Amino acid sequence: MIPGPFRYRRVRSVDEAVALLSQLGTDAKVLSGGQSLIPMMKFRLAEPSYLIDINPIPGLDFIEERDGMLRLGALVRESTLERSSLVRQRYPILHDTAEVIADPLVRNLATVGGNLAHGDPANDHPATMLALRAQVVARGPNGERVIPIDDFFVDTFVTALQPDELLTEIRIPAPPPRSGGAYLKFERKVGDYAIAAAAVFLALDEARRITQAGIGLTNLAYKPLRAVDAERALLGQQPSEELFRHAAELAAQATDPVSDLRGPADYKRAVARTMTLRALRRALERAQANA
Amino acid sequence: MTATAVRGIGVPVKRKEDPRFIRGKGTYVDDIKLPGMLFMDIVRSPYAHARIKRIDVSKALAMPGVIDVITGEELAKANLAWMPTLMGDRQMVLPTDRVVYYAQEVAAVIATDRYTAADAVLAVEVEYEPLPPVLNPFEALKPDAPLVRPDREQKSNHIWHWEAGDKEKTDRVFQEAEVVVAQDLYIPRIHVASIETCGCVANYDPATDKLTIWMTSQAPHAHRTVFSLVTGIPEHKIRIISPDIGGGFGGKVPVYPGYVIATYATLKHKKPIKWIEDRSENLQADSFARDYHIHAELAATRDGKIRGLRVHVVADHGAFDAAANPSRFPAGLFSVCTGSYDMEAAHIQVDGVYTTKPPGGVAYRCSFRVTEAVHTIERMVDILADELGMDPAEIRFKNFIQPHQFPYKSPTGWEYDSGNYPAALQKALDMIGYQELRREQAERRARGELMGIGISTFTEIVGAGPSHTFDILGIKMFDSAEIRVHPTGAVIVRIGVQTQGQGHETTFAQIVAEELGIPVEYITVEHGDTDTAPYGLGTYASRSTPTAGAATAVAARKIREKARLIAAHLLEVSPDDLEWKDYAFRVKGAPDRYKTMQEIAFAAYTNFPLGLEPGLEAECYYDPPNLTFPFGAYVCVVDIDRGTGQVKIREFLAVDDCGTIINPMIVEGQIHGGLTMGMAPALFEEIVYDENGTMLTGTFMDYLLPTAVETPHWKTAKTVTPSPHHPLGAKGVGESPTIGAPPAIVNAVVDALSHLGVRHIDIPITPAKVYRILQEKGVAE
Amino acid sequence: METLPIQVTVNSRTYTAEVEPRLLLVHFLRDVLNLTGTHIGCDTTSCGACTVLWNGRPVKSCTVFAVQVDGGEILTVEGLERDGQLHPVQEGFWEEHGLQCGFCTPGMMMTAVALLNENPDPTEEEIRKAISGNLCRCTGYVNIVKAIQYAARKLREGATVHVGGA
Ligand SMILES: Cc1cc2nc3c(=O)[nH]c(=O)nc-3n(C[C@H](O)[C@H](O)[C@H](O)COP(=O)(O)OP(=O)(O)OC[C@H]3O[C@@H](n4cnc5c(N)ncnc54)[C@H](O)[C@@H]3O)c2cc1C
Ligand code: FES
Ligand code: FES
User: Fold this and answer.
1) Angle CA(B343)–CA(B361)–CA(B203) in degrees, nearest 5?
2) CA distances from B310 to B168, B374, B387, B389, B619 (A)
3) Which chains does chain C touch, 3 or more C-beta pairs < 8 A?
4) Could you give the CA distance from residue A155 to residue B99 in angstroms, rounded to a whole number?
5) Catalytic residue chosen out of the listed positions B365, B396, B484, B560
6) CA terminus-to-terminus distance, chain A
């Protein structure tokens, strides 16, 4: 399998990337980790005329906590995220997610930015970012804008990014006390996309009432999904097995999966429920440990 | 010479082939590069069944770097549009008017490099008129089904009917039987998916008028004969080299259209042509395995004595019967399906059917159709046990062929050479702690947890010949070895079989080391080059050790007999006064007077007795008197997740008996690999088509090879029951685990659910399938 | 057709070449540099037969363009042995029968080398996870795990090893 021909441009700054993108329009694609783009090019499902390689841009691979936000540069590799002690300690849900994406070799190149920018409902980070209420920072010819994650995923393989915009950063609110998150994925084997996966983030108040609830679901609809009804059902309640089951059921009902080789739609919905329930339990454990 | 120095049979000698592989210095087909080499790439059909209305190659031909586009029409002029299959059917090389499976070869592009060839494939325009696909063999057998093969005289999709056993006697047993159980079992299409795909470099050299083809071949000699028959080129003008092969497992036994087109192209252009498949092409178009629709019935007494087996199979062979079975066995050795159990009668029927799917019916790291046979009987025995409320171990002990019954004549006509089935099963049960596991299972069940224990006690049948029964296209299934001992005592062994990772360069050297008392490091084994290796039928169906291994031992013994004469001459005694002991010829009663093989070898060229031919060489074409019958007892323990339907193999123990073991390290490695390829179709792999006949599992994203994470830490053990007729007592092992593992796993999963009334689940046992059952039974979480 | 100049250090030797941007790193290594120890087993970035170290990290060279590694360092299986001394991972694969057909082996060993550079004493589970991007059809992985454990032991005992590529 051989990709079609294209022209290649290497950029060393965000400005340079944006300038080239504006100049070349939809003919150009950003090359980040290449782990989604190159396979598609090999099958000629993508045939861009230009690739703009952003990997040489220095300083776009930061992982830092600043001003109450975790900031991830677009070029942070999944394997870096997986090994970050900051992430492991403060954002275990992100660690959970990175660890189940593709396989360890793919993760050495695949970037968090690319994972979101690809707009693939089968990718794992979108659900996590939905649960965490992340923000995506994009830079275009008219400067920078911050896109709330809820507005980011538009359709299958379509995001709010304009063709001349570069995703530069992802911001995640720092976790309050008594909060915890977890990502649970059920896949057929390592390297597979999820049959169903659930990202859950919970925060409790001192009276053990749920003050924040985020639930994101992977590969269960035409785009990454937030289980809004399930979140609402949790808010203000004290966690209990019964409540979690109810929320998991609501989350499953929110899904709209297609039947395919991973299983029939109703099966995927059932697994969505199981994953949500188990992620709720684990998020709660972590929230309690975090008191 | 001491055993430590010789390192012959039974020693875990480190492999002699490994130094090149661990340095990245193996030579696989795609590593071969010749001056002026061109690249071939193939245009494939997007339809499972269609008429070809037009092929327009002009755009492709106009591209810079494109040399040629070859179509079926052109091949037809050279009488090469069709080729024979190994099963006496014929197969399209390139179509002239219609395609009969998805991803079928339609045209071939020749270009100066891979990239240009790939671009040109997209520029070839083909206009199709779709025809209705025929995907289900039962539908295919209906009178109004579209005809897959109008080229045949017989205007139906039925290929052949084949029977074994005694129908009348079997029917009688079933009439009288106190208990009969019946079950439909489907063993789906799967693919061997060796990590190296198939390919070749074909090079016709006009200066020498010689055609050399490096190809991914498990049977270079047989392929040379086929090529000679197909092209009319005399056999001595064809040289087939099977270099290092990145896994075969049966998928590199057939001749694929790509090889033939590349050969045609080199003859036409007088330039070397390289063709290497993509993984997608490999999965989509190369020979598949299995696709057996089985209906089985078992008759028994109420106390669990099996009396008879009746089986009917509908075998989906795709568009051409391109299986790789011995010619007189269109269903391979499937009739060994009475397994390890003594019964009065059996009757087996198999019907081969055409569908618009890729051709095949090859093995998958297993002997011809034995996996299907073992799956049938091992599942049926468990189903019978369930019917009678018996423990699966108990019913097996009750029905085993007993050690004293060997050689045992099976109701379908096989003569099992040796075995001790109760000992193997007892060992497995003891090692795994069977009773304890059953107790644990009861406790877990009480808590609502799902745990299962599965047993499989299989008998394998390997090592075809003997030649009176087995041939491929008329070529008898013997095998060969040729040994040359050089003056310094260094040895070259050339064998007719070929290695794809089984370690022949080591094990065959060990056989010679043992027989001749020459240290293994002085022995080189060569294979895979038809110009130098003796004729052989190839490596598949675990036949190397039983056939070529025996040939090697016999040839070595011929050398020893000649060496005795030379030793007698050197020691000035009569040959009868010598005995072969501790790796030397020693004077009886005076063991300190001896000659080693090294000394004798030197004398064979420098100081041989008058009247004796100089030199020390021998060859043997070994025609085995019978097949060998390895066996084993496997136990598998699984846990099932009620929230997802996922099956987890907690523990798997394989007790194997392959007779005498030549290299225990290699045997264990073969077992690990075979178990993994047994687990794969049991839990993961399946070739799936949509309703148009388009393959949905054409890449490794959807054709699911297990990784190290899904694969359990296999545990192995052995018993040793030598084959009485093999010169070394060896039986062959590479494939036993692939046939023994699937029923052990399925039996374990079914066992976990048996209290809910589940009796059978078809493979692959996917989480979705299990979850559906859990839902039906009301135990899904 | 556009070609671009690249300079790459492969197994400590520096090469310059003019390449088409779409040339995959694996084809650059195999077809241009004749380093055929790196193999190709799939089209979907699934099998890992093509694994090499790029600036010390194991990546699938079928899913990287040669132009991307301009100025970088690549280590392939051919660069593991130094001064006639096998790398402990190579030794481990030989000792523990960690290979059969040998086709997955170069990629598998490169992943193992990177793992041991990072984690000198991995558990069986860690090893299995680390090699889960490399498919082997022959061995059933048990002996590959043992081979890597062997190498880990050997490295901890202080075998002299270069850490190549990085
Ligand atoms: C075998 C395999 C299995 C996989 N399994 C999973 C899995 O289970 N879960 C999962 O989540 N992912 C999986 N992936 C996908 C992997 O995580 C991808 O790498 C990821 O989706 C994209 O990241 P990337 O950096 O490689 O992006 P690229 O492939 O470089 O780019 C992807 C798309 O995003 C665009 N893009 C990238 N970065 C930017 C940016 N900064 N600004 C604007 N546009 C940008 C590109 O132009 C392109 O259209 C798998 C990949 C493979 C090969
Ligand atoms: S060739 Fe399979 S992952 Fe690279
Ligand atoms: S040794 Fe053959 S694929 Fe691994």
Assistant:
1) 140
2) 11, 14, 17, 22, 45
3) A, B
4) 38
5) B365
6) 53
DSSP string for C108-160: HHHHHHHHHHH-SS--HHHHHHHTTTS--SSS-SHHHHHHHHHHHHHHHTT--
Two structure tokens written together for B556? 């070595």
Residue B236 φ/ψ region, left for φ over 0, alpha for ψ in the -120 to 50 degree band, beta for the rest = alpha
Q: Is A242 buried (19+), middle (13-18) or exposed (0-12) by CB count in 10 A? A: exposed
Let me know: does B220 contact B242? Beta carbons within 8 Å.
Answer: yes
Interchain contact C53–B (C-beta under 8 A): no
Cα separation, C58 vs C166, whole angstroms: 11
Name the CA dihedral angle for A179, A185, A186, A191, rounded to a multiple of 10 degrees.
-160
**How many angstroms is it from C61 CA to the middle of ligand 2?**
7
d(CA B93, CA B545): 34
CA atoms within 13 A on the CB side of B651: 14
What is the rounded distance in angstroms from the CA atom of residue B561 to the CA atom of residue B317?
Answer: 49
Q: How many Cβ atoms sit within 10 Å of the Cβ of residue B35?
A: 6
- Which tens digits make up the pLDDT trace of B69-101? 999 999 999 999 999 988 889 999 999 999 999
Instruction: Let me know whether C47 and C15 are in one domain.
Output: yes
Q: What is the separation of C-alpha A66 from the centre of its chain, rounded to a whole number of angstroms? A: 20
Which chain C residue has its CA at the smallest distance from A54's CA? C68
DSSP B501: S
Eight-class DSSP state of B253: S
With the C-alpha atoms ordered B736, B741, B746, B752, is the resulting torsion angle positive or negative?
A: positive
Residue by residue, DSSP assigns B58-70 as: HHHHHSTTEEEEE
Q: Which of B104, B218, B284, B500 is catalytic?
A: B218
Delineate the domains of chain B, giving CATH numbers in brackets: 3-25+479-622 (3.30.365.10), 32-132+215-237+253-269 (3.90.1170.50), 134-195+247-251+287-369 (3.30.365.10), 420-462+628-781 (3.30.365.10)
B571 Cα: distance to centroid of ligand 3 (angstroms): 50
Question: What CA dihedral angle connects B169, B173, B174 and B176, to 10 degrees?
Answer: 130
Q: Could you tell me which of B431, B438, B346 has the C-alpha nearest to residue B392?
A: B438
Residue length, chain A? 291
Q: What is the mean pLDDT of residues A168-179?
A: 97
The ipTM (two decimal places) reads: 0.96
Domain count, chain C: 2
Quick check: is B365 catalytic? yes
3-state secondary structure of B245: coil
Q: How big is the A-C interface in CB pairs under 8 Å?
A: 80
Chain C: residue whose CA lies nearest to B282 = C42
Q: Indicate which ligand has the atom closest to the C-alpha of C25.
A: 2
Ligand nearest to the CA of A107: 1
Q: Do B244 and C105 touch (CB under 8 A)?
A: no
Render pLDDT for B638-661 as a digit per residue (tens, 0 to 9).
999 999 999 999 999 999 999 999
Query: Which is the closest atom of ligand 2 to the Cα of C61?
Result: 4
Low-confidence ranges of chain C (pLDDT < 50): 164-166
B366 is catalytic: yes
> Which pair of structure tokens corresponds to residue B763?
């493979």
Whole-model pTM? 0.97
CB A236 within 8 A of CB A204: no
State the fold for domain A179-289. Answer: Enolase-like; domain 1 (3.30.390)
CATH number of A7-53: 3.30.43.10
CA B495, CA B509: separation in Å to the nearest integer? 11
pLDDT of C166 = 37
DSSP bridge pairs for B524: B492
The yes-or-no answer on residue B284 being catalytic is no
| Spatial separation of the C-alpha atoms in residues B623 and B471, rounded to whole Å | 11
| Residue type (1 letter), B679 | M
Counting as contact any 3 or more CB pairs under 8 A, the partners of B are A, C
Backbone angles phi, psi at B424, to 5 degrees: -65, -45
